[in-house]
Design brief:
By secondary structure, the protein is mostly helical. The protein has a domain at 45-103: Cytochrome c-like domain (Cytochrome Bc1 Complex, Chain D, domain 2), CATH 1.10.760.10. 59% of the residues lie in helices and 4% in strands. It has five helices and two strands; from the N terminus they run αββαααα. Strands 1-2 form a two-stranded antiparallel ribbon. The longest helix has 22 residues, at 2-23.
C-alpha cells in the first residue's frame, strides 16, 4: 500500500503540473500591455470632469473654475499652482484635468 500511495501522489503532482502548464501556455495576447496614453490608467480612462468636481471643490466652488478661461498652458500653470497649495492629483489625474479644462 505504501507504493500505491506514492503512485497516487505522483499522478496528482503530474496532473497539477499539466494543468498549470496549460494555464500558462501561450495565448494570442502579448505578454506586456502597451503603455497607456496620457490620462489613462491601465485600461480605465480618467474622467477630468469628475476629477475637477471631486478635487477642486475642496477649496472653492465650481463657479470659479467655470468663470476661468485659460488655454492649455494657462490651465497647466493653474493646476500646478493648486497642487502647490495642497490639491492632491497624480500625474495621470493632473493630465486628465488639464485636458478636460482646456477643451471645454
Amino acid at each position: 500500500m505504501h507504493i500505491r500511495s506514492r503512485v497516487i501522489v505522483m499522478l496528482c503532482v503530474f496532473a497539477l503540473a499539466g494543468v498549470a502548464l496549460t494555464a500558462c501556455g501561450s495565448s494570442s495576447e502579448p505578454a506586456t500591455a502597451p503603455l497607456p496614453d496620457e490620462g489613462v490608467v491601465g485600461q480605465q480612462m480618467l474622467d477630468g470632469e469628475t476629477l475637477v468636481g471631486e478635487r477642486c471643490i475642496v477649496c472653492h466652488d465650481l463657479q470659479r473654475v467655470d468663470d476661468a478661461s485659460y488655454d492649455d498652458v494657462g490651465w497647466e500653470a493653474t493646476v500646478d499652482r493648486m497642487i502647490g497649495k495642497g490639491a492632491e492629483l497624480t500625474e495621470e489625474e493632473q493630465a486628465a484635468v488639464i485636458e478636460y479644462l482646456s477643451n471645454r
